[in-house]
């Protein structure tokens, strides 16, 4: 712990560097995000919860805040389970390396489709083909930091900030399309604690926020928990991209 904090303090004394006059890239912010990302690349499994809030536009009242509590299990490279309870109901996703299954507990309906052979490829499918967003997905991509830098954004270290009772490294950035903030655990784990995004280029500038809790790394999760067995009375439906 002391060695880690000492290295961080040394980096903070280096100031910042920039690519020309714009953007401004803070060396400590870059270091913290890179290290957090690297550590998540090296795990075999994890679970965590995500308390999510997001804005949806309503013509009568403007931006409406919605929320969801998601429980996520991941077993790399090819297994994932998400259980989400929120304003839009209770639903779950199972991915076992071959099949992606969706189930609505309220409607007692399920859908299934073939899926790519890795978690990250499946997340891309969820986002692009089905319009389903995955909490904390960015942190798991090997290109997470380079993708941020490629937006030509400013990236600044703001100091230590509280998220609940946890001390966190607070990082903020702004690109042409969004402003964003990350809170990274101020300990040797460097796990993500919170993220917030304002989509400044979109009409009404909606926001997305997620707080990550209850991290467990290298848990022993049986393969069976990633298989979906539909209830006998459930109705089978189709994903939006299926004919």
Mean pLDDT: 88
Low-confidence stretches: 1-20
Binned strand content: 35-45%
- Strands of the biggest beta sheet: in what spatial order? 9-10-11-12-13-3-4-5-6-7-8-14
Helix/strand-derived category reads: alpha+beta
What is the helix content? 10-25%
Distance between the termini: 54 Å
Give the ordered list of helices and strands.
Answer: HEEHEEEEEEHHHEEEEEE
Please tell me how large the radius of gyration is: 19 Å
Shape: globular
Per DSSP, the total helix count is 5
Largest sheet: 12 strands, mixed
The total of beta strands comes to 14
Protein described:
The structure is a single chain. This protein has 243 residues and is an alpha+beta fold. Helices cover 19% and strands 44% of the residues. The protein has helices at 2-12, 27-41, 119-128, 137-140, 144-149; strands spanning 16-18, 24-26, 45-58, 62-75, 79-86, 89-95, 99-104, 109-114, 154-163, 166-174, 179-185, 192-198, 207-217, 235-236. Strand 4 and strand 5 form a beta hairpin. The radius of gyration is 19 Å and the shape is globular.
């Amino acid at each position: 712990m002391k060695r880690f904090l000492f290295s961080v303090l040394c980096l903070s004394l280096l100031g910042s560097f920039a690519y020309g006059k714009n953007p401004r890239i803070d060396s400590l912010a870059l270091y913290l995000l890179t290290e957090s990302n690297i550590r998540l690349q090296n795990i075999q499994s994890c679970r965590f919860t995500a308390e999510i809030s997001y804005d949806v536009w309503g013509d009568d009242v403007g931006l409406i805040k919605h929320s969801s509590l998601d429980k996520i299990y991941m077993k790399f490279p090819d297994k994932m389970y998400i259980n989400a309870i929120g304003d839009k109901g209770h639903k779950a996703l199972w991915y076992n390396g071959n099949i992606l299954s969706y189930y609505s507990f309220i409607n007692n309906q399920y859908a299934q489709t073939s899926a790519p052979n890795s978690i990250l490829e499946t997340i891309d499918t969820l986002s692009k083909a089905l319009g389903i967003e995955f909490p904390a997905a960015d942190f798991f991509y090997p290109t997470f930091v380079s993708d941020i830098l490629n937006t030509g954004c400013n990236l600044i270290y703001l100091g230590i900030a509280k998220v609940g009772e946890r001390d966190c490294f607070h990082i903020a950035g702004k690109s042409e399309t969004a402003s964003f903030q990350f809170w990274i655990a101020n300990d040797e784990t460097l796990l993500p604690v919170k993220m917030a995004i304002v989509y400044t280029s979109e009409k009404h500038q909606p926001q997305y926020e997620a707080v990550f809790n209850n991290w467990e790394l290298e848990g022993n999760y049986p393969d069976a928990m990633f298989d979906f067995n539909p209830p006998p009375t459930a109705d089978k439906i189709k994903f939006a991209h299926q004919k």
